[in-house]
Design goal:
Elements (H helix, E strand, L loop, with lengths): L5 E6 L19 E2 L2 E2 H11 L4 E6 L4 H6 L4 H9 L3 H8 L7 E6 L6 H6 L2 H4 L4 E4 L3 E4 L4 H12 L2 E7 L9 E9 L2 E9 L10 E9 L3 H7 L10 H8 L5 E5 L3 E4 L3 H14 L4 H10 L3
Parallel strand pairs: 1-4, 1-6, 4-5, 8-12
Antiparallel strand pairs: 2-3, 6-11, 7-13, 8-11, 9-10, 9-11, 10-12
Helix pairs in contact: 8-9
């Protein structure tokens, strides 16, 4: 069995929910305290055993390339001023044994289309997908939890979260045949159903592990919800040939694609930040609301 060593980050979206902040800067570069969202995602991937990071970027996303590139001028300046701690922070953004690839998506055409842009680099291997605006805090990285299941089942695994059915119009929603603890044998999946048509309250969120066969299913997909090529439709087609599993991961998800979720993440990560925690807690205690 081939090990999963590659992850795809679809980061070509326009981030319209955060305008005007995202007019010239990608939403994935919005910081949670002192690290951008995309760095948290990359660190989760590396901690899960990934060796190759594949970024699907758009025309305005070159700053993501810059973030994961070396910065000799900055590093020399930090070295000259003996700021060794800051120098280490900059240099460890991409560990030396990790390779980064950047692919330009020529038009915003949906998550399925973005993932398909990585086909030639994935090269007929199983791979993972992380959506950076779903920030997940967990002791065991969420992606590693999915990879461990893939290593056992050798088929697609989707991260699941229980939601209020009123929110089903925001997610891909699964129906399942059976379950074993938090692992579900997926029967069907539908993109953004209305609450009355949703088959469950189990939503697919921000982490996927796919066999390479998903690419041929994407190629067969027609434009769906939002006139885009949806990965949900490709997953539904994949189930005609092999099992697909969903897993309610151990951890807490922050929807940083929304302003409220982004603020929640900022507060909770600040409360755990080694430099800020004590001062920030005191500030919140004394805050008059």
């Amino acid at each position: 069995m081939k090990k999963i060593k590659k992850v795809v980050f679809p980061v070509a979206g326009l981030g319209t929910r955060f305008l005007p902040a995202t007019k010239a800067s990608p939403k994935e570069m919005l910081p949670i305290v002192d690290k951008p969202l995309i760095q948290y995602a990359a660190e989760e991937a590396v901690s899960s055993g990934i060796k190759e990071l594949i970024f699907i970027i758009g025309r305005t996303k070159n700053v993501i390339m810059d973030h994961f590139d070396s910065a000799p001028e900055l590093e020399n300046e930090l070295l000259a001023k003996n700021k060794k701690t800051l120098l280490k922070l900059v240099q460890k953004i991409v560990p030396k044994n990790i390779d980064c690839f950047f692919v330009r998506q020529n038009k915003p055409a949906g998550l399925g289309h973005a993932i398909h842009c990585a086909k030639n680099i994935v090269n007929n291997e199983p791979f993972a997908v992380i959506l950076a605006d779903d920030l997940i805090k967990s002791q065991t990285p969420c992606l590693k939890q999915l990879i461990d299941i893939y290593n056992e089942k050798e088929t697609a695994v989707l991260a699941l979260e229980k939601i209020n059915k009123k929110e089903s119009g925001k997610y891909g929603i699964i129906e399942y045949n059976s379950k074993n603890n938090n692992l579900y044998d997926v029967k069907s999946i539908v993109e953004k159903p209305s609450p009355k048509n949703a088959k469950s309250n189990l939503a697919v969120v921000g982490r996927y592990v796919f066999p390479p066969e998903i690419f041929s299913q994407i190629e067969k997909s027609k434009t769906g919800v939002g006139k885009e090529i949806q990965i949900t439709d490709a997953i539904a087609s994949l189930m005609n040939n092999q099992a697909v599993y969903g897993y309610i991961f151990d951890g807490k998800r922050f929807d940083c694609g929304s302003k409220f979720g982004y603020l929640q993440a900022t507060i909770e990560y600040a409360l755990e930040h080694k430099e800020l925690s004590k001062e920030f807690r005191n500030y919140l205690k004394n805050l008059k609301i």
